[in-house]
Amino acid sequence: MEEAEHQHSEIPLATKDTVKKIFAGKLYDSQSQRLLPRQLITVSSDTGLILSVGNYNEADERALDVILSTTRDTQDVIDLRKCTVMPGFVDAHVHRK
What we know:
Elements lengths: L18 E11 L4 E11 L5 E6 L2 H13 L6 E9 L12
């Protein structure tokens, strides 16, 4: 993925009951085989599908800090800024008896 594809600005944190925002400190990109820093993953609350992935900026991070420090209802945001996020691993094989 090109670095320019990961640029976002003025990203709204969440629209109630529509999307979840995951703030990842690092995200493993299997196509480039790199860890991408400061990634914002937007997920549909209805379908669970990833809607977008891109950089979050300092303004987004400050807004997240305000939400986390002033609101009890933080179900629309997931703070993984100190974590590395990797794609899910699925064990799809079956053992027949």
